[in-house]
Amino acid sequence: MANRSRRAVELPTGSTMEPEFELTDEQWNLIADLFPESPVGPKGGRPVVASRPCVEGVLWILRSGARWKDLPKCFPSSTTCWRRHKRWTEEGIWAKAWARLTRLLDRQGRVNHDEAMADGTFSPAKKGVKRSARRSGAREPRSWFSSMLRGSRSALIQPVRVHMK
Question: Which of 15, 18, 38, 67, by CA, is between 20 and 30 Å from 147?
Fold first, then answer.
């Protein structure tokens, strides 16, 4: 008869290698002031996780496409990283950090202004419409891409219509 009192041993799944950080120290120093460290309250409490590990955790999720719950153990908890990501997005901090890092790359000559890419993997198809159906002339297409083109104020960007089959 088998001994059923033993506890099951969980085997590691997925990659056992720890991921490398996405940002160099030079890049982090450029944007560090956008992610201020929050002091512990006067009543004490749990110490606040530093911003850089949270930023690195968010960047790992965005780069890998993994679920939040699959964030490797070398980063802060997935809940902490998700909450910070949400707050930083709402406060516009990511846009400011992106602008600073892009300017750095541009000064280094690592930005090719002759190329641009658009990712259409999140563009939903309209359901229930036949392929041969024509759009009415009265309505302009409403998608993230068309609204992005309307919102673009840069003289360098020329709107290009993309027709999907």
Answer: 67
